[in-house]
Every structure is written in C-alpha cells, then in structure tokens.
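Researcher: Here's the sequence for the chain we discussed earlier.
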Amino acid sequence: MYHKNVRPGKKYSRFLAAVLAVFVVSAGTFVSAGMPVVHAAVQSVPAGVKDTSVSNAANFSTDVIYQIVTDRFLDGDPSNNPTGAIFDKNNLQKYHGGDWAGITKELNNNYFTNMGVTALWISSPVENIETVDPSNNCAAYHGYWAKDFFRTNPYFGSIRDFQTMVSTAHSKGIKIVIDFAPNHTSTAEDGNMVFPDDGRLYRDGQLISGFKSDTQNIFNHESWSNFSTYENCIYHSLYGLADLNHMNTTVDTYMKDAVNKWLSLGVDGLRVDAVKHMEPGWQKNWLSNIYTHKPVFVFGEWFNGGTSSDSQMDSFANNSGMSLLNFRFANAVRNTLGSDNSTMKDLDSVVSATSSDYREVNDQVTFIDNHDMSRFMTLSNNNGRDLENAYVVLLTSSGVPTVYYGSEQYATGSSDPYNRGDMPSFNTGSRAYKVISKLAPLRKSNPALAYGTSKQCWLSNDVYIYEREFDGNVVLTAVNRNEGAACSVSGLRTDLPAGSYNDVMGGLLGGNSISVSSSGAVPAFTLGAGASAVWQYTKPQVSAPQIGNVDPMIGIAGNTVTISGRGFGSTAGNVTFGMKQAQVRTWNDSCITVAVPSVTPGIYSIQVTTADGAKSNAYAGYEVMTGTQVPVRFKVNNATTNYGTNVYLVGSVEELGNWNAAKAVGPLFNNTASIGSYPTWFYDVNVPAGTKIDYKFIKKDSSGNVVWESGNNHTTVTPSSGAATVTVDWQD
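Model: Thanks. This is the structure I predict for it:
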C-alpha cells in the first residue's frame, strides 16, 4: 500500500522505474526514450466523421456558404405572411413573404446541392418587432430588430418549420448558419420621436425591460456612437438601437441561454452581428460558453471599408476565439474586378498582407458582396464577366467563401435596401451559377483550397496567377481582368507535378489546358481577354500527417476540439497540447476530435502522432483558459496619467496576463459617462468563474515603460455565474 509521506530511496526508485517501464511497454501505452511510439493497440475510439462531413460543425474550411436574406428568397408558405403596414411586396423596406419553407423547397429542388453549396447562412431566426420603425418607415424583415431571442420570427415560420429546414439541409450534406445579433434590440431613441416598441426585450414572452422604463440597467444609455474610438463604438448605440448592457447578469445569462437554445435545434454555425460594438471580454466569455455547449464555427462582423490593416480588428480575429468576415479581401476584389480602381498587384498585396496579419487566414470568411454593400453587378456596371471572374478568385483563395443570394443570377442593387431585392430566378443555367458549381466542389475534394498556403506565381496589372498548396495538393488559378486584350504568359512556374492539366471549368470562361515540365515550368500560353482558368492536382497519398485546421481555437479543459487535415491514418494515435497528451474522442484519416487536457492555462501548439509514430506539423496558438468564464468589469479610480500613458490590468490568472506586464489587459477605457471617465479607468474582461484573483493596475507610456501600483495586491472572488463589477482606488 502506498503512503503519501513515504519517499522511496534511489535504489528502490530505479528498480520501481525499471519494473514500471516493462509494464507500460507491454501495455502499449507509454514507452521509454528512443523506442518507437506504439499507441494504436490500446486506443480503440470511434472513427468519427471526415473533415468534409456535414457533422463537422466546428470546421468550415471545406465549405462554401450561401448567404440568404430569408424574407427575400422564396415564399414557401403564404399563410405565415404578415398583414398590415409591415407587408408590401412592392416596397423594399417591408416584408415580402420569404420563409424557411421556401428555403426547404429549394433544398429539396437541389438548387444549392447542384451549385456545390454546403452551408446556408440565413437571417436571424428570432422574433422581431412587428411594427414599422417610425424613424425610417422600415419593417424588421432583415431580422436585426429582435424583441425575443427565445421565439421564432413567425413570418419565417414555426419551430417545426425551422427544424424541418435544418434536417432537410443536413440530409443534403448542407450546414445551417444563423445570424445572431446580441448587441441590441430595436430602435428606441431618435430625438423626441416615440417608438412604440421602446426596444423592449422579452424572454419567451415575458417582458424583461423596455429602454425608457429601464430600471434594471438592462441597456446602456449613452448617446449615438460617433465611431471615433473603440470605446465609443462599444458603449454607445448604433443609430439609436437599444444597446444591451452585457455586463448585466440578466443579459449575460439571457444571451448564453438563448444561443444555446438555437444550437440545440441543430444549428451548425453562427454569424455574430456587430462584434466591434460589444465588449471583447464579454464576447470571449460568451464564446467559451458556446464552445462548452457545442463546438461550432463562429464568425463575426467587424465592418471595414478599406483594405488596410486595422490593429484592433486583426487582434480580435487572432485572439477572440471567433473568425471574422474578411472585409479587407472583399474590398480588394471589389476594387480590382468591380470598380477597376485597383490593379491585380494591389489585390495580391492584400492577399499577402492578410495571410500575414491573420493567424488563421483560412478561417476568415470571404465574400464579394453582401446585404450591407452594393451588389457586385451594380459596382461593375452590369459586367457579367467581372462578376464571374470575381467568383473564380473568391472560390480559389484563402478563407471560407460566401455567395450572396441572387448574385449568381446577376442580381443588381445599390446599398440597403436595394441590395436586398427578391431572388430574381433559380436558373441553374446561368454562367455564374455554372462557375460556382464547377469550383465549389473542389473545397471538398482538394485540401489545397481548404488548408493550403497561397503563393503568387505570375503578376501584372491585369493578370493574376496564384496557387494554393497543401502537402503536395495544388490548385493553380489564372485570371485576366482585361476584356479587351489577351495576355501571353511566359516564365510561369508551379508546384503542379509534371503532366497536362485541363481547366476545371472546362473552358467556361475561356480557359485552356496547360502542360507542366518536371521542373515545374509551364510553356508559354495565351490567357484570353477576360479569361479565367483553374488547374488542380489531388495527391493520391499523403507523405506525412498534416494538420490543416483546428477549431475552435479557445477552450477550457474537457472541451471538444476538432483537428482537420490529412494523413492521420485509420487507427488512433495520440494528440498533444505542448507535452500533455489529450484524450482522443474520435479518429479518422482527415478528422480527429479530442478533449482539451488539464494543463496550465496558456497558449499551446497541437501536434498529432499517428499510430505508426509519424508526427504532424505543430499547429500553434490554441488558448486553454483557466476554467468556466464569466465577465467582470474592473475599475480603478484616481489613476492620473501624462499624455501618451495608459492604464492596464494584470493579475494572477492567465486571462489577466499571469503577472506578465507584457500580456496585461488594455489599454483600459476612460470616457464613458455612465461607467467611468478620466481619471477613472475600466475594462470588461473574461475571467474564470468562482476564483480568487489577485490583481493590480499598471501604467505604460508610449515607450513601453511600466509603473506598477504600490501597496498590496487587490483581491476579488469572481462570481460563479453572471457578471460582476469591482472598483478600487489607484495605490500611489
């Protein structure tokens, strides 16, 4: 019997180690240094799903998303159409009757399947206000003016209709993404105007609060945002929409329960509206709750009108735990192939920059138009070839591509609401539809598009030739935007193996075949005026295990993590987070799921070792958090600073930098009247629940010099659930 106070002597320890080594080697679980790794004999786990499966809800790298404004797609059930002032099919600001029954109908007609679409992003499904907004005479057809996140929008259908749509989509190998807008409810303030709904929030029919009658602090009550600072964007309202106070326990609990309800109905992904306008700490706490409940793909909207880097946006994409809509890429494609304000060289520069700025560029969601910008056809003056070439770039570039409903039918329209017209047709013979149908399936069949790196191979102002490569799988794309002149391409080199290659699109956009020598040289050829071509090679057998994607990228011990790639084998090996082995839950050649191991919180690289001992690349950047997360607002009074100096927060847990000033949270905010104004500073942070935390505030100047508070550490115990605020005075 082992007694914890007895320490064996050295000779006994060596003997025990030798016996133990014999035992564990015979068990096939652990081995001594220098011996081959043998794990397969003891790891009997379910095969799980392939990375391309509809059941792989965490990873969308092999998918093509189709965005639908539900009300404008198809009226499948006229009986659920609204009546009165909010319904008018001739008015783009009112309901038109589109619903989940209409989406289900086209699912059954295989409109999406034949296009190669494998995910649908639909309008927010929650109950919205049922009146006309008096400030703009608009109805809530778009789904962004919620009043009850626990009930369906009745004009889209019932819960049963929603479940029928989801199950039909899944039977077709198609995932469902819902728009979710936790930032606000409906419009509640615009001068002296009276809003009949007053931004009211309900929970399954029970009123929580209205905006003007808010005695519980459910809403923030600042003025309209002027978008001047990140702080102003977060705590001020968007154009008078009732801005929810997520640091209120009622709201925090509400949004966690609401999103989990929809996930429990089979939803595979979330597009989160207005992430720039919510507290980053609250959002990370909310995401941690989501990933504990169900690991799904989540991407947010951080609007960016240009192509340049935004440090706060890039940091959010890399550290928040969710992906973003890649506005930089979208604007670059629109500038180059739509308005012709930029060249192909400019587009290549943006592709290169985003590949560097985003830690997981393949997880960012790409598009060429959406519901908040003019249709691509309108931007390009109704030039169909520009649109078709833009789809070629979209579908073969890094990221998760999204097709905006109707654009494959050459729909037109300037900004909202004209970019949200009714679906023009379901013509499967349109050339844009055919282009998508040729290229979208490559996401499933060639991992170069899902996981590959990007490399520019040939470039001019009008011609862009680039390739994606992943473990010897290659997709080479060539686009000539000049519809008035062909281009002679010489000196092109590629990673395609030696051989002849036909255009994947079969010459649909004027592309031709090419040949490749053993050195990767491509003999000179002519790329026609306005022509595009795609050539591809799929490797029959991988040379080594390769991780292509890990999702989600944040979690707590016990959460499920999905590891996608190639060459993992059919027999389970092992997965490590740093040096710690994780419990394998499912395993097959392209997709592994594991439980996050109990490790010291921090950032880890994940590596796969196959049953025969082959090691994969190390996939860096996975964040293991301390435990179940809650949001806490940290405030400090009387922290005076000189110009250029800011206040930061650091403490005893990983979420607060673990006493490392270089990882301190901040800079803190100090210009929100209802929360704190200089010399009061504050920040909303995700921290472990029910935990004693020691912390201090520090000051950093523009040169990085640090001044710590004097005195003892501040101490707080975080709530076991809900939100909290702690306030202290700066200690000189």
